[in-house]
Write a structure and sequence with these properties.
By secondary structure, the protein is α+β, with helices and mostly antiparallel strands. It has three helices and nine strands. Helix 1 crosses helix 3. The relative contact order is 0.15.
Amino acid sequence: MYNTDMPLRSELPSSAQLIRSTIIAAIVALVLLVTVVMPSEYALDPTGAGRLLGLTEMGEIKIQLVEEAAADEAAQMVAVQPSINEAVSEPVEPVFEAAVVKVEAEPEVAPKVERPAPTMAAEPEWQDEVRVVLTPGEGTEFKLTMQEGAVARFAWVSEGGPLNFDTHGDGGGQSISYEKGRGVLEDEGELKAAFNGNHGWFFRNRNDNDVTLMLRTDGDYGELKRAM
């Protein structure tokens, strides 16, 4: 059997080399933590590199999925409690009362006045209109390219079931969440950009069936684009 030769003391790394290697490894790990792990897992992007690499958006979606799952679980627990209370409640016997019929003299018929038919309000015109079908558990995102202070008008409706949504924006290393909703069938209003960048909506179908989303937009923005 061949025994491996013991290395000479001169061949072993010195203490200074070991310390230097340890410091370099710690710096590399810290850089990866700040530029990759924190944006992709926790949506924290102190350097802005995660936004450029598309990792911050991944982290935001992960956090939103966790929040939606927790909210759905809490809603199910609240829905079960009333059912239990109804099951143990005592039945209430119906009470029947004799009906009293009151006969009144017929009122005099006033002469019919012809009035002009009301004018129907015209449907608002929209700059963009999109329609997409979301399967159970599927999500999608639409963004408007907007300048700071610009205002866009919007209206969306879901057919087949309600949707969860998150109205938010990002750009230039900044991000903001304007509004969130769960189990919403439709919404409309105005979206004012807090800064230059992309501003819009993330939708997710939490139903057991397909849901059709119709989104209409108009106003001061560059383009409407589907991010995912």
